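Next comes a single protein record:
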Amino acid sequence: MTTSKRVQDRSSKKRVHDLEIVTEKWKIVSKVMAVMEVLKWEVDMVITLRNLEQYRNRINLPKPHKISVFLSKSPKLFELYKDQRGVLWCGMTKEAEDLLEEQERLIEEHSDKAVEYVNRCLMMSVDKQLRVDEIAHFRRDFGLPMGFRTKWVHKYPKLFRVVKSGDGEEYLKLVSWKPAWAIIEMATQIVKAEALMNKFNEANVFLFLPMRTKWSAGPLLSSPFISVEECAIEEAGQAMNKDGVLGDHSA
């Protein structure tokens, strides 16, 4: 197997080949989204490339890679132009602005789920609190908006609130415990299944589940309360009589 870092040069027979391709694509998408978020907070959503250099760590584009070269590879999202003094500027296209608006709309629609994710993490933490910086690191994974630090953390005071430690570090502290969110998904499904079974038992209803068998359903239909063993014996006897294995031994 090659030691190249390019996905195209690796073996196509690897089990994680598809995952590697998605990971490589996400590395590019995350950089593009970081640039778009920087432009979102700028006046008129434009910035000089000299000022954009300050966000290299945030964009995760280390040297010697040039930001201008990276932006030029996405002409449908970013526009590069020079002013009268020869200063190079960067802005977003109309398509990129539409994508940002769509992203904000989707984040707003799924805000309840993002609140649940953050609240679950706080419930699982040792002191029922987490640093705001740690949550911000997974902001995109949780589906949190760009104004997470300034606005979003203060929108749900009944669930969590921002507190400061002695060294001035900001923490998000749990306010109310949600019992429904303390149960894992598998346990929730088990509880639902048990409730369904109890409902059938109270109504005296027999719940027949489908099962694979090697015999026909004839005896089961003729005798609704026949056991599986009796059904198998009856089927075997009918098959042996049909093949002439069991004969008349009265003589």
Q: What stands out?
A: The mean pLDDT is 77. Residues 80 and 90 are 5 Å apart (CA to CA).
